[in-house]
């Protein structure tokens, strides 16, 4: 299991998600441009020393990420508030990449079109969305419950920080 963050722009959320990935031994991908850099104080504070333990790969753009994914032959599972299918009604595989959108803008239409599956965590109407780090925790909880260890799937190199 792996996760990817599309152009994240709130450093505390990314730090929290990378800490989660370190603890669950799930590889992470950041699709640039992010709204902050690796030296950001809030990012470092949220990720703490857990950042030293995460398997992380940075992709300069969406197209670079897609090149990597084609080679790795991983399905892309997009979490979006605009999906019709619940994340509980989906059969995950160990090599899936779970993708989460930018806090302020979600993902582009091209990203939606590229996804092999689009899933929602149902929430009470008319509320708009969950925090992205909470979404990632819930999504990983279900995906790992179904598939087992977070160490499954292809490893990535650590090349961001
Ligand atoms: C704060 S939301 C983005 C809201 C943005 N205005 C939009 O329209 O997508 C950030 C990301 O968290 C994830 N997310 C938040 N709530 C979700 C939900 N209920 N179901 C699935 N994904 C969710 C999605 O990946 C989303 O792109």
From TrEMBL:
Q: What is the recorded function of this protein according to its Swiss-Prot or TrEMBL entry?
A: Methylates the ribose at the nucleotide 34 wobble position in the two leucyl isoacceptors tRNA(Leu)(CmAA) and tRNA(Leu)(cmnm5UmAA). Catalyzes the methyl transfer from S-adenosyl-L-methionine to the 2'-OH of the wobble nucleotide.
Q: Where in the cell is it found?
A: Cytoplasm
Q: What CDD domains does its record include?
A: SpoU-like_TrmL (cd18094)
Which superkingdom does the taxonomy of this entry point to?
Bacteria
Task: Give the catalytic activity.
Answer: 5-carboxymethylaminomethyluridine(34) in tRNA(Leu) + S-adenosyl-L-methionine = 5-carboxymethylaminomethyl-2'-O-methyluridine(34) in tRNA(Leu) + S-adenosyl-L-homocysteine + H(+); cytidine(34) in tRNA + S-adenosyl-L-methionine = 2'-O-methylcytidine(34) in tRNA + S-adenosyl-L-homocysteine + H(+)
What keywords were assigned to this record? Cytoplasm, Methyltransferase, S-adenosyl-L-methionine, Transferase, tRNA processing
Q: Where does the tRNA/rRNA methyltransferase SpoU type domain lie?
A: 2-140
Q: Which gene underlies this protein?
A: trmL
Task: Please state what the protein is called.
Answer: tRNA (cytidine(34)-2'-O)-methyltransferase
Q: Name one GO biological process term.
A: wobble position ribose methylation
InterPro entries of this UniProt entry?
Alpha/beta_knot_MTases, SpoU_MeTrfase, TrmL, tRNA_m1G_MTases_N
* Species classification: Bacteria, Pseudomonadati, Pseudomonadota, Alphaproteobacteria, Hyphomicrobiales
UniProt entry tagged with the keyword Cytoplasm: yes
Classification via Gene3D superfamilies: 3.40.1280.10
Q: Which enzyme type, at the first EC level?
A: transferase
């Amino acid at each position: 299991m792996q996760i990817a963050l599309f152009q994240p722009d709130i450093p505390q959320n990314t730090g929290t998600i990378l800490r989660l990935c370190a603890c669950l031994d799930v590889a992470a991908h950041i699709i640039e441009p992010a709204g902050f850099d690796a030296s950001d104080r809030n990012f470092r504070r949220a990720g703490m020393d857990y950042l030293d333990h995460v398997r992380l790969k940075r992709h300069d753009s969406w197209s670079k990420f897609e090149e990597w994914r084609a080679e790795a032959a991983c399905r892309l599972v997009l979490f979006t508030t605009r999906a019709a299918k619940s994340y509980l009604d989906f059969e995950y595989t160990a090599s899936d990449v779970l993708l989460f959108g930018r806090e302020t803008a979600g993902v582009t239409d091209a990203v939606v079109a590229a996804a092999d599956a689009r899933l929602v965590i149902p929430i009470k109407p008319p509320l708009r969305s969950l925090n992205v780090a909470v979404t990632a925790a819930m999504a990983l909880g279900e995906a790992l419950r179904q598939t087992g260890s977070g160490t499954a799937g292809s490893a990535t190199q650590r090349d961001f920080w």
